[in-house]
Specification:
The chain has 267 residues and is an alpha+beta fold. It folds into two domains: 65 residues, Orthogonal Bundle (Arc Repressor Mutant, subunit A), CATH 1.10.10; 181 residues, Beta-Lactamase (2-Layer Sandwich), CATH 3.30.450.40. Helices cover 47% and strands 18% of the residues. It contains nine helices and eight strands. It has a six-stranded antiparallel beta sheet, with helices on both faces. A two-stranded antiparallel ribbon has the order 1-2. Helix 1 crosses helix 3 and helix 5 runs antiparallel to helix 9. The radius of gyration is 20 Å and the shape is globular.
Amino acid sequence: MANAIKTQSVPAADRILTILELVAQSKRGLRLAEVAEKARMPRSSAHCLLLTLERRGYLHRNENSGRYMFGLKLFSLAGSAISGLEIRELGAPHLAFLMQQTGLTVHMAILEQHEAVLVSKVDPPGMIRLATWSGKRMDFHCTGLGKAIASFLPEERLDDLILVRGLPRHNENTIVSSRKLKQQLREVRTMGYALDDEEEEIGLRCIGVPIFDNERRVIAAISVSGTVTQIHSDNVHKLAERAKAAAANISVALAASAESRQHVDPA
């Protein structure tokens, strides 16, 4: 209603969500002083909110470093939300098969707002596991998953991503020029896959492939990830082809599911 009075946000709730978002953006967690500074709130207020989140299990404080990190409660909530995603359920067997084929860690991500968000992960057995998890948010310009999705977005949507999120540098390999990024994304469209060549983290590579719906709109991406000794120039094309086959199978499963729903619930 045009004349309706806009309901104001609750300040305390807004501050708590700000703290959770700040912790999510940090790789090693945040100390009290860092939270207070980044959230622009008094240290005493930050301490009370952090203590509340810790007592409820949403944050955990490392006794040695004093840094606050996510607690198990958040992972439980994230898992509950993510488990309802159809693409995650339909993609599960294909991700497992891709992991078995390649012996590498396999991820699935969707674009939420201005970041790629992991919704599924399959680790190979008996190996050191990558520091990723369902619910992790990643920059779109320096990850295989993010670039695979961004490559097939409308031009205006891509410009909006760059404007709002920016192109933060993770290391010397990260693309921080919008011109160079768009040039690479055009190459991704031609090849059908994106490569993160140590652009987010030194020593790691990732091959990302888009997933499309039945109208050829990009809705997600999957990837195979590993060390630079596991993914290299001799096997990158073969790995990409296997990832593309898995992505195509997931797209087919999504289309079949959509068609099935139409027959059950005709317009």
